[in-house]
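Field log, afternoon session.

UNIT: design team B
ACTIVITY: writing a sequence onto a fixed backbone
BACKBONE:
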C-alpha cells in the first residue's frame, strides 16, 4: 500500500508540474494558500508521528501476533494519510496559484512519505512483541 500511495502522489506531482510549467515565488501574501499549506503540512507531519505513537502504544502485549500486526498496519495507514493529505493540498495550491512554495512543501512531504516505508525493524521497534514473535517477524 505504501508503494501505491507513494507512486500515486509522485505521478500526480509530476502531472501538476507539467501542467503549470512555471514558477511564481511571490510571497506578498495575496493568496491564502501561502498560509494554509505550511500549517497543514506541519499538522500532517507532527500529527502523523503523534497519532502513530499513540496508536502503537495502545497495542497490547498479550494479544495474538496477527492482531498486533493489524493494529500496527492501521496505525501506518493513518500515518500515511496524515502525510499525503497535506501534500495533495499543497499540489492543489500550486496548481491554483503557480506559487512554488506549496510545491516545495509537497515534495518534502513526498520525500518524508518515501522514507516511512514499512520494514521488519520498524515493526519490531514499535510493537510490543515477545522474543518468539520477534523471531517470527524477522523470518517472515
Amino acid at each position: 500500500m505504501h508503494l501505491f500511495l507513494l507512486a500515486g502522489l509522485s505521478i500526480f506531482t509530476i502531472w501538476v508540474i507539467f501542467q503549470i510549467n512555471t514558477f511564481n515565488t511571490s510571497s506578498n501574501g495575496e493568496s491564502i494558500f501561502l498560509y494554509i499549506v505550511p500549517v497543514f503540512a506541519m499538522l500532517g507531519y507532527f500529527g502523523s508521528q503523534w497519532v502513530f505513537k499513540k496508536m502503537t502504544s495502545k497495542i497490547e502485549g498479550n494479544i495474538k501476533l496477527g492482531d498486533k500486526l493489524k493494529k500496527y498496519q492501521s496505525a501506518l495507514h493513518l500515518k500515511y494519510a496524515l502525510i499525503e493529505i497535506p501534500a495533495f493540498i499543497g499540489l492543489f495550491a500550486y496548481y491554483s496559484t503557480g506559487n512554488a512554495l506549496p510545491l516545495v512543501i509537497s515534495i518534502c512531504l513526498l520525500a518524508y512519505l518515501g522514507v516511512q516505508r514499512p520494514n521488519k525493524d520498524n515493526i519490531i521497534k514499535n510493537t510490543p512483541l515477545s522474543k518468539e514473535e520477534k523471531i517470527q517477524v524477522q523470518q517472515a
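LOG NOTE: The mean pLDDT is 91.
NEXT ACTIVITY: expression trials, pending approval
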